Amino acid sequence: MQLSHFIDHTLLKASATPKDIVKLCNEAKKYNFYAVCVNSCYVSLAATELKISNVKIASVLGFPLGASSQNAKVCEAEQAVNDGADEIDMVLNIGFLKAELYKQVQDEIAAVKKAIGNRPLKVILETCYLTDSEIRKACQIAKQAGADFVKTSTGLGTGGATENAVKIMVDEVGDSLKIKASGGIKDAATVKKYIAMGVSRIGTSSGIEIVTYTKKDTDEHTY
């Protein structure tokens, strides 16, 4: 198993500079990560840096609160795609979900999916703010809206991925949607654990440490 192929190499800090994004892209090429995950203002820069590579570009939208208007999210998605995004990671409207405004949540996800066409749409649930039943409901809504993935976290909430949240997501929609675990994932053992549970993608800013440690560990056991 090549862990790098599961990893979205991520930099979403407010303080990230263009120089930091160039570095991120160079690292993604060097370590053969599946994608970089960046804020939408940096999609065009990432597209330039990665044009002669197999590394995909994922852009977040409505990030990190999910509380932008539907029109704003759609416009951001369209701009990101125009700038070169291959995938979109959108934060659903958490407040609407908790208020049981399910139609509004579903309509918003469907509108973003329509805007990006056949590109993968990952819906960030921000599970740290949700009950188990709300996680299940969010998964059902994402599926009904035509999303391709459900994703645990932004990495900027009160908590990141947990085994409990991932298990609920896999049990609820793992037969029809892919699962992305993100937030607080810093070591190879955790990555392997989530992959074994059924996760298809890992979002992390610790990708280099994860794959370097794995290679070192493998080499040590060769002798």
Describe the structure.
The chain has one domain: Alpha-Beta Barrel (TIM Barrel). It has an 8-stranded parallel β-barrel, surrounded by 7 helices. Helix 3 (70-83) links the parallel strand 3 (56-61) and strand 4. Mean pLDDT is 95; it is low at 218-223. The two termini are 20 Å apart. The chain has 9 helices and 8 strands. It is globular, with a radius of gyration of 17 Å. With 223 residues, it is α/β, with parallel strands linked by helices.
Defining key terms:
47% helix, single chain, eight-stranded parallel β-barrel, TIM Barrel, 8 strands, alpha/beta, EC 4.1.2.4, 223 residues
State mean pLDDT (0 to 100 scale): 95
The sequence of SSEs as H and E is EHEHEHEHHEHEHEHEH
Helix fraction bin? 40-55%
- The oligomeric state is single chain
Provide the fold topology.
Elements: E1 7-11, H1 18-31, E2 35-39, H2 43-49, E3 56-61, H3 70-83, E4 87-91, H4 94-98, H5 102-116, E5 121-124, H6 132-144, E6 149-151, H7 163-173, E7 178-182, H8 188-197, E8 201-204, H9 207-222
Question: What's a quick, concise take on this entry?
Answer:
By secondary structure, this protein is an alpha/beta fold. It has one domain (3-222): Alpha-Beta Barrel (TIM Barrel).
